[in-house]
Amino acid sequence: MIPLRRAKETLFGMQYVLTDGMKKNGANPMRSLMILFIIDFLQVFRVMLSPLYGWNVQTYDLAKHADMVFNVITLLSFVIGRYTFFGVGFLLVGFALGNAFYCAHLFKGGEINKIGPIKTLRFMVAVVVTTLFSSVMKWLLIPLECLIDGGGNFSTLFHGKDAPCTPLIFPEVLATAPTMVIIVLYVAFAITVAFFSLGTNPLSCAPHVQFTGRVEALFIVSKVFGTFLPFLSTAITPVAISTILCALCFAVLRKHLTILPFHHLPTNMLRGGIYGSIFWLSLSSVVVASVDALDVLSADTMQTMQWLLVGFTLPMFSLGVLLVWRRRNAIDFSIDRLRGEFEVQESMQRAGFRRKKGGRDALSPRSTDKKALSDAEDEDCDHSPESTTRSGSTPSFDPEAKARDMVEKVTAKPKGAFEQFFNPAWERKRAFITPQDALSAVRSLLMTRSETELPFLHYMLSRALEEHPDSNEIQLLNVSLLRFVFCKTTESSQAEKRLRTTQSPAIDHEYVLYAIKRKAAQDHAAASIGNGHFNAINLMEFDSGMQQAKTAHMQCIAELRKFWSGASSKRKTKEKEGLQQ
Q: Which of 42, 103, 212, 488 has its CA 20 to 30 A from that of 345?
């Protein structure tokens, strides 16, 4: 258990330093992020329209020319050769993995003052994981691609021009075996980085910061499947391959729409459009493979159908953006519905009800919301003849009880299984049907960045905890909001202890708890320094500089001691000589 715990702490520490305070280059971070997303999408677009999924060569040529990275590689291949990119990809991935293991060794040994390897690893992650993942995977698969399409025979380098494709036989295996190991490590590294690439500070509003890394990790998995599934073409049909990929792409789109992982709405909309386009391409691959298997269309008709399917990619991008917008509107609607309930409770608490002697109840003059209370009184008081008793007296009126009833009519209280079963209206009274609805609503309200909404935010969080007490995500959000938004350190620590004792958090949730502690300690250290905007790298650089200054200071003190010690001995020697004379 101790080695496993140390391994997790090492992983968490390294990942925290990689992601904390990381900003996209350029004056406009949204524009830089958009460029990276488009570059990545065009590479996936080329992979999805591969002839291995049943698409014609003409359609694939269009996808190749749209991919900017492929065009650059094609131009360079005329100068340096195609197999050079296999070596470049191997070296890039090998260097990134080696640097990652070296950084892990530094963190394990406590040598966290070496900033160079950490900054290098940040850059390598941005290159080989975020931007060029699909292209680097294709480069690494160059020795094996003759197994699926018959082109680019790697064995010709060893046995001549007409050699058969034998990448798994000596001597080719000396290159392909390490390559397969590198590919496995590379995929695991990319999924791990994407899985933990989340922002633990709820106050961060940078475009790339996301609440959870599970969606991005699932997207990486879908890209890996899209690259490797064609190798199974000899075992399963292209229709089955396309169907598996389509199911994965649909899962990515659905999870994105459910969570809306990014803090920034335009980023969620851009990612939703990309996921919608990729799902459409995967669904089109199913259609193309099915029609090709049935062989019911001529070649010209088949090509026309493929042009039409590819042409609908842009409308599907717009549909993905629209789905994200509708999801956000649904969240805003639920927030507005809860706001009315919150205002009723606030009015009830501020009113200060009191009773009149010998008469019916009246409102206290301490009320600060006259309109709301008068409306409630007009609605609940019935002065019709039918409401009077035979003696002509008016029935008593308790505005406090009536206001409480108004709230309870739309409020779902925590109930057991028995009460829930015999109360059909209980589900309709719940503010949040699922934990994800609660998370999305709370995060959406927080991103309005209005300090006056903090009481309402606290109310929504309390409702979410009442209705979904077993949700780890809601409890984690509660811990982070108590720590960074409401500035209640003690309550945050108590909530964290309850979470650890009553639940078994997933590994990414454990990372969130680790990062919250690390971020709190980092903010405290930055405040003591006098700068409240330090990130992990800045703090490490400051600590490294302070350590160097301390070492130089101690060396200076040692040299001064030697100097004064020598000067004192010389003085004593001269005094002795003077006495002797």
A: 488
